């Protein structure tokens, strides 16, 4: 009978442990590895929403250039790796996988569409990849139903906060108190109904009308006739440039001119397509690059123009608020990497709660807080009203429409 | 009453656009028993190219003429390259796939080069709306039904009184027999697709000042124009015109008295029911073949 050496099982166990450790190490999520100093982005760079991708890209590239000219992050240049998702959620998820697992970027930046951002909730959670939204304003992007959002942050507006802001603006301008909601028949437009209704209820004013339209509708006379007959003098509008122009054309046909107070889907192109009819239309947003700019913002605009020849004037920035948000978000990311002190996603996430940064949209002090509602950096107090005047989108104070009307 | 007049006026205007597009389908179908499914994009060329040429400094009418000429050429090229080689057999359907594919390519190219957003096309007829019985409408919108009437009578005269028009009718009636009497059916078909391209671009140019010229402006109009042609009976020009206008008016009345959101659902349902009751189309005649 041979004697089994007493250490043999211990060696075998040790060997198995090493193998298991190696296997686990290979399977460990990218988050546990050292991340790269890059911002991975999934934007709408081609297709019908290409102007939104452009609005973000010009800001991020300009900001990165400034950050790298000042020494980069942790002694390394910050890079941008941008992928096109054409506004399709499935592509956005594919891009997130690439960014999180192949490129191993420290953070991902989102684009225009809320459905894309919503589709990223689970993949981001699985990868432990921080995400920064700069336009998509859907409430659910940040306020997850399970109240457990860890990785998604935003430097943009939030629909739930926008609705009371629009209602306040509408109330201030309605002489009769007869305010109606007109919205596009999309998830965004329909999502505004509960928010606006709740805000109106809080203000103790009933909605005097509620009308919808389809994307690409050219005539909205029927909706407007109903609103006119209901005595509506102010319309809260959720739509984009093309349909906003068609709404104004229909108003012009009817000789009916209620005040329009619009969510920020209406961009600068509206001034060109609607012409003089756009005068006096009020839009909520975070920034405009037109009118008198503070010196810092004027410098940013100059650098954007120098870098992107297609941006000849501020009128060529399709979504001015999105551009400003993206510029601030890039600096917040750089600050967080510096505060984290290492290229680690968990440390980066923790650092986001310690970032204090004076941006061009707002003073972020701090940028984020731990409760998910405050994963939104821009507070409602920083929202602004702009108005179209003579082909420009200006801060309302720089237009004749600053005062509440008394029609 | 004022509202009814408003729906009538805007309905006739938008219905006239559907009718013009449907007329284009009629012209193509008559000659080839095939159509160009990218026709909505040819319609788009009329608006978009006019804007581009105006931005390059051309006067409006010259730009519109240029856009229509390019669209005419485009229609002919599509027939020669993407329809004819795939329409050799009696039951060939390859042309459906190729023309749809070309349409997607055209729209993508226009979006990439022209941009995704609409652009204005200023005309003197869009300055102030006209007031008619309390309703309002732009003169530009009234121009469209006028153009439709002129076009319809012009086509009728062309088909009946010119050699080329008669050749077109002969090809439509019997392609083989037309060939036997010396008519070059292929060339006639090429001409028909070019003519349809011009008609589509004319419609696009006329409506662009009202709705903005954009790379996607032809998607819905192309679909509805085709539907109108089928419901009317694609081989009947007058029927196509009548159904087009009626459909535009119907849409406005659905919006006004039922629901804006359900407009297309209700409109399409009514059209499908009409097709069930009249399988040859409202104005179509049962095709009789000698065997």
TrEMBL record, chain A:
Species of the source: Roseococcus suduntuyensis
Entry protein name: Branched-chain amino acid transport system substrate-binding protein
Signal peptide range in chain numbering: 1-32
InterPro entries: BCAA_transport (IPR051010), Leu-bd (IPR028081), Leu_Ile_Val-bd (IPR000709), Peripla_BP_I (IPR028082), TAT_signal (IPR006311)
Keywords tagged on the record: Amino-acid transport, Signal, Transport
Family stated for the protein in its record: Belongs to the leucine-binding protein family.
Pfam families membership: Peripla_BP_6
Domain Leucine-binding protein: 39-380
GO biological process: amino acid transport
SUPFAM superfamilies: Periplasmic binding protein-like I
TrEMBL record, chain B:
Membrane-spanning segments: 6-27, 34-54, 60-83, 95-117, 137-159, 190-211, 226-250, 262-283
Main subcellular location: membrane
GO cellular component, one term: plasma membrane
Classification via Pfam families: BPD_transp_2
Keywords for the protein's UniProt record, in alphabetical order: Amino-acid transport, Cell membrane, Membrane, Transmembrane, Transmembrane helix, Transport
Gene Ontology MF: a single term: transmembrane transporter activity
InterPro entries reported for this sequence: ABC_transp_permease, BCAA_transport_permease
BP GO terms, sorted: amino acid transport
Subcellular locations according to the entry: Cell membrane
Topological relation to the membrane, as annotated: Multi-pass membrane protein
Family, similarity comment: Belongs to the binding-protein-dependent transport system permease family. LivHM subfamily.
Name listed for the protein in its UniProt record: Branched-chain amino acid transport system permease protein
């Amino acid at each position: 009978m041979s004697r089994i050496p007493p250490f043999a099982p211990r060696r075998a166990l040790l060997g198995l442990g090493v193998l298991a450790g190696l296997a686990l190490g290979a399977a460990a999520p990218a988050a546990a590895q050292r991340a790269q100093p890059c911002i991975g982005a999934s934007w709408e760079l081609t297709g019908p929403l290409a102007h939104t991708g452009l609005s973000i890209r010009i800001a991020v590239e300009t900001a990165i250039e400034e950050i790298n000219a000042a020494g980069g992050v942790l002694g390394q240049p910050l890079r941008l790796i941008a992928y096109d998702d054409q506004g399709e959620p499935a592509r956005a998820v594919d891009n997130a996988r690439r960014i999180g697992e192949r490129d191993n970027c420290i953070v991902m930046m989102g684009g225009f569409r809320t459905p894309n951002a919503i589709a990223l909730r689970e993949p981001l959670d699985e990868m432990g990849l921080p995400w920064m939204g700069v336009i998509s304003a859907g409430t659910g992007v940040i306020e997850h139903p399970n109240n457990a959002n860890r990785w998604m942050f935003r430097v943009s507006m939030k629909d739930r906060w926008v609705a009371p802001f629009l209602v306040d603006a509408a109330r201030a301008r309605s002489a009769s108190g007869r305010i109606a909601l007109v919205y596009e028949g999309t998830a965004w437009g329909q999502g505004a109904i509960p928010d606006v209704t709740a805000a109106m209820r809080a203000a103790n004013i009933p909605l005097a009308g509620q009308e919808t339209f389809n994307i690409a509708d050219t005539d909205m006379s029927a909706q407007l006739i109903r609103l006119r007959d209901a005595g509506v003098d102010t319309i809260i509008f959720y739509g984009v440039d093309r349909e906003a122009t068609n709404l104004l054309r229909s108003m012009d046909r009817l000789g009916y001119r209620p005040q329009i107070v619009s969510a920020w889907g209406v961009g600068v192109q509206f001034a060109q397509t609607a012409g003089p009819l756009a005068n006096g239309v009020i839009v909520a947003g975070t920034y405009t690059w037109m009118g008198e700019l503070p010196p810092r913002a004027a410098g940013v605009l100059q650098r954007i123009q120098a870098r992107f020849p297609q941006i000849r004037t501020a009128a060529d920035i399709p979504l001015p608020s999105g551009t400003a948000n993206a510029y601030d978000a890039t600096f917040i990311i750089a600050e967080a990497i510096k505060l984290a002190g290492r290229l680690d996603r968990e440390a980066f996430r923790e650092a986001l709660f310690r970032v204090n940064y004076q941006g061009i949209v707002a003073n972020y002090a701090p940028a984020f807080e731990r409760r998910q509602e405050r994963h939104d950096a821009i507070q409602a107090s920083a929202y602004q009203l702009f108005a179209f005047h003579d082909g420009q989108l200006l801060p309302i104070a720089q237009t004749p429409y600053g005062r509440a009307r008394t029609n | 009453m004022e509202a009814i007049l408003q729906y009538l006026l805007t309905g006739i205007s938008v219905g006239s656009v559907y009718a013009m597009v449907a007329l284009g389908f009629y012209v193509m179908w008559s000659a080839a028993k095939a159509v160009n499914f990218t026709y909505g994009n040819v319609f788009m060329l009329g608006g978009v190219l006019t804007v581009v040429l105006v931005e390059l400094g051309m006067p409006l009418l010259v730009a519109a003429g240029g856009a229509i000429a390019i669209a005419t050429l485009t229609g002919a090229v599509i027939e020669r390259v993407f329809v004819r080689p795939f329409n050799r057999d009696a039951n060939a359907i390859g042309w459906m796939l190729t023309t749809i594919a070309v349409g997607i390519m055209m729209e993508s190219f226009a979006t990439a080069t022209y941009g995704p957003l609409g652009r204005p096309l200023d005309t003197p007829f869009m300055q102030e709306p006209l007031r008619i019985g309390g309703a309002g409408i732009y003169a530009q919108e009234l121009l469209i039904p006028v153009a439709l009437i002129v076009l319809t009578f012009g086509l009728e005269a062309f088909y009946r009184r010119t050699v080329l028009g008669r050749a077109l009718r002969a090809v439509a009636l019997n392609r083989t027999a037309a060939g036997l009497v010396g008519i070059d059916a292929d060339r006639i078909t090429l001409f028909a697709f070019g003519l349809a391209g011009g008609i589509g671009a004319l419609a696009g140019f006329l409506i662009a000042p009202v709705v903005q010229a954009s790379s996607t402006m032809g998607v819905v109009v192309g679909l509805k124009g085709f539907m109108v042609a089928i419901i009317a009976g694609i081989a009947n020009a007058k029927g196509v015109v009548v159904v087009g206008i009626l459909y535009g008016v119907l849409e406005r009345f659905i919006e006004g008295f039922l629901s804006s959101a359900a407009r297309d659902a209700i409109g399409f349902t009514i059209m499908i029911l009409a097709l069930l009751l009249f399988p040859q189309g409202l104005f179509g005649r049962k095709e009789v073949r000698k065997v």
